[in-house]
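Notes continue from the previous slide.

Worked example: a multi-chain complex. Inputs as given:
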Amino acid sequence: GAGVSQSPSNKVTEKGKDVELRCDPISGHTALYWYRQSLGQGLEFLIYFQGNSAPDKSGLPSDRFSAERTGGSVSTLTIQRTQQEDSAVYLCASTLRQAPNEKLFFGSGTQLSVL
Amino acid sequence: GQNIDQPTEMTATEGAIVQINCTYQTSGFNGLFWYQQHAGEAPTFLSYNVLDGLEEKGRFSSFLSRSKGYSYLLLKELQMKDSASYLCAVAGGNTDKLIFGTGTRLQVFP
C-alpha cells in the first residue's frame, strides 16, 4: 500500500476484554515496529519484527501482550484482559530493512481506551 | 541506562526562529533522528544525523555533537503549521530500535 495502515483507528473496550490491533506495513518493507504513546509520554518501544520473526520482544509490558506477523506483511498486536493502564495510542511503523539509519514510516495509530 | 531529554513545551511567534534541544545518554550511538508529529497524526521523518555538524534542509536544520551527547533542531521563518510535537530519537549501539524522548510541543502564535 501507499502508507502504513492501522485498524481500528479508535477502540473503546471494557476492562478485562481482549483486543486485537492490526497493522498493514508498506509493501516490501521487511521490518515492522510497534510503539505505544501514552499522554505526556514518549514513544515506548514494544516489539519489532524482521520478516515474521520477532528478535526483540523486550518492550512488551506483560504476558498479556503478544504480537505476530504473517507472510512478512500484516501484524496483529493482541492485548488480553485489558487494564485501564493499557489506554494509549498504539503506533505501528515499518522500514524497508532493519538498519540504524532507516527512517520509520508510521501509521496513524489506534487510540485504545479501556473503561 | 538510556536517557533522552528535551523540553516539554516551547512557544514562538510566526516568522521567528526556534531551537529545540535534545540531550542523550545511550549505550553506543548509531545516529539521531528528529520526527514531527501533528496532534492526532502519525510522526513523520524530519532529519537524521550520524556525524557531527549541521545539516540544513530548507527551513529546518539539525545539529549534532556526539562528544557532548547533544542535538538541536532549528526551525526558521516559523509558520502556524509548524505547531506540532517534535520528537528526538536515538539509534543506540547494540539495539535494533529507536529510543524516543518525550517530545517537545511547539506552539506558534501569530
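Summary box: The mean pLDDT of chain A is 93. The interface with chain B takes residues 4, 33, 35, 40-45, 48, 55-56, 59, 91, 98, 100-101, 103-109 of chain A (CB under 8 Å).
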